[in-house]
């Protein structure tokens, strides 16, 4: 019976020893194998490996991408404008050994280092830009400049910063209204300038058009008078040719006399009194003989 108990105890001991020698590593973690507090091996691939039971122990560190929300901070632009920066950082552990050695393997300590480094970079970049330039570039160039300014300063802690993104980069509440009013005033001035330029151009076009129309009318009127004069000249020439002999000339004079007599009879008056010496009377007398 005693031997059986000893056998069971030995089996349990072997089982515990076997289990304690297993190292299970998941895809999103690093497994650090330590012996007497010193890192002897880093397992960075998922699966099962082994360690010396009771002598070696393991610790885990995140291998996946980390997101850290930087506390809001006040920054001053090159043109001495105060702004509030709210940003977040995408980072990961690049060297588990350095990370453990300098930060005791604590993510909270890493975040503290990252916060200080990003704030320093943010302050340095923004202090070299005017407020208008910052607002214009906050969705692109600004983030790149901040990350580039951090450079390799965190490499010694086993940290790699992949990106720094600004959630908001705004003015303090007490300055917003004044800035908005100034921006509105500037836009109104620009609009007024464009309107004045447009009115000036429109008036110039109108004046040029009026001048061109006047010139065209004058030229057209002169051309019309010229054509009219030429027509009258041709008319007189035709008449001269038509009544070139005496018989035709007398007939023409007779027709003209009738037209003149007709023009004298107005308002229903049917009586025409002529002096014998009148040219019209002479025509009638001549045709009566």
Residue-averaged pLDDT, rounded?
79
Rough outline: rod-shaped
Return the CATH class of the largest domain. Alpha Beta
Under CATH, the topology of the largest domain can be stated as Tetrahydropterin Synthase, Chain A
Structural class determined from secondary elements: alpha+beta
CATH superfamily of the largest domain: Band 7 domain
Low-confidence stretches: 13-19
Helix proportion: 55-70%
Number of helices: 8
Order of H and E elements: HEEEEEEEEHHHHEHHH
Q: Alpha-carbon distance between the termini?
A: 186 Å
What would you say this structure looks like, in words?
Mean pLDDT is 79; it is low at 13-19. The chain is built from 8 helices and 9 strands. A hairpin with a 5-residue loop joins β7 (73-76) and β8. 12% of the residues are buried. It is an alpha+beta fold and 289 residues long. The strands form 3 sheets. Strands 6, 7, 8 and 9 form a 4-stranded antiparallel beta sheet that branches. It has 4 domains: 2-61, no CATH class; 66-171, Band 7 domain (Tetrahydropterin Synthase, Chain A, 2-Layer Sandwich); 174-223; 243-288, no CATH class. Helices cover 56% and strands 21% of the residues.
Question: SSE layout and pairings?
Answer:
Blueprint: H1 2-20, E1 22-25, E2 29-35, E3 38-43, E4 47-50, E5 56-62, E6 66-69, E7 73-76, E8 82-93, H2 96-103, H3 107-126, H4 131-137, H5 141-150, E9 159-170, H6 173-242, H7 246-264, H8 279-288
Antiparallel strand pairs: 1-4, 2-3, 2-5, 6-8, 7-8, 8-9
Helix pairs in contact: 3-5, 7-8
